[in-house]
Every structure is written in C-alpha cells, then in structure tokens.
Amino acid sequence: MLRSGAYIAIVKGNQKRLRKQLKSLPWNDIPLQGRTRGTGHGRAESRRTKVVTVNNLLFPGARQAVQIKRRRTDRKTGKITITTVYAVTSLTAEQATPLQLARLIRGHWKIEALHHVRDTTFAEDASQLRTGNAPRAMAT
User: Fold this and answer.
1) 64 with 92: CB under 8 angstroms?
2) What is the pTM assigned to this prediction?
3) Close Cβ partners of 27 (under 8 Å, ≥ 6 residues apart)
4) What residues contact residue 127 under an 8 Å CB cut-off, 6+ apart?
5) What are the angstrom distances between the C-alpha of 120 and each of 10, 134, 135?
6) Contacts with 137 (C-beta within 8 Å, 6 or more apart), sequence order
7) Are 79 and 85 in contact (CB under 8 A)?
8) What distance in Å separates the CA atoms of residue 68 and residue 89, rounded to the nearest whole number?
9) What pLDDT is recorded for position 40?
10) How far apart are alpha carbons 83 and 93 in whole angstroms?
11) What would the pLDDT profile of 69-104 be if each residue is shown by its tens digit?
12) Cα 36 versus chain centre, distance
C-alpha cells in the first residue's frame, strides 16, 4: 500500500529527541480519528488513532505524525496496560487516511512479532554471517 519511496516509521525510545518532539504535539486538541478493537492471545485490545499534519520534524520528509494508544486487558487477570506508540510518515493526508495509516502500523507490528520469534529462537541478530548466500541460508 505504500507508494514507491514513501515510508512509515515507528518512533521508539532510542530516538529520544524525535520522540520528545512527537509527545509535545497538541494531541489533546486533536480529535480521535479511528478506533479498532480485537481479541486474541488471551487479551482484549482497543487502539485509538490520532493523526496530524506536521512540518519541521526531526525526521526528513515527515508529513504526518501518528499517535496510537493501545489499551490491553488480560482476560484472565483483568490487568490493564496502556501503551502510546508514535509514528511518522512521508505520506500526506491526501495520500493516506488515519485508518490506512493505522492498518500499515498494525501490519508492521506483525512483521516485528515474526522477527522477534526468529531472533529469540535462532539468535538471528547475533549472527556474524554477512556475505554470500550464508545469511539467506541461515534465515531459511
């Protein structure tokens, strides 16, 4: 769904200045633009999405910032966890709606989950194999 050369990037804690900049945007003044709910893996989850057009972020070419608040409830214990995720994208508001951006981010989480399994099971990130066919063979 991303156009050639377009990006969407999740902003994690290791990008301190950009994350601080995103957190300081006026999210309380921005209306809720999407909500999804789901269940699985023993928990219920709701995701609330807000998107704002931006200029001058500490990320080249960023045109929109995204905030997703995830509320997870463990169905056995009732424990509630709330997590806020930020992302930036080069796509303009005309190119991608908040719903489309939320779907792209959700798709990214699926890829990250697969990578986590590969890394914890096969120590893929610790591999010293960098040349020839060896990296592909080990990944397979």
Assistant:
1) yes
2) 0.73
3) 50, 52, 67
4) 135, 138
5) 21, 19, 16
6) none
7) no
8) 14
9) 87
10) 24
11) 999 999 999 999 999 999 999 999 999 999 999 988
12) 15
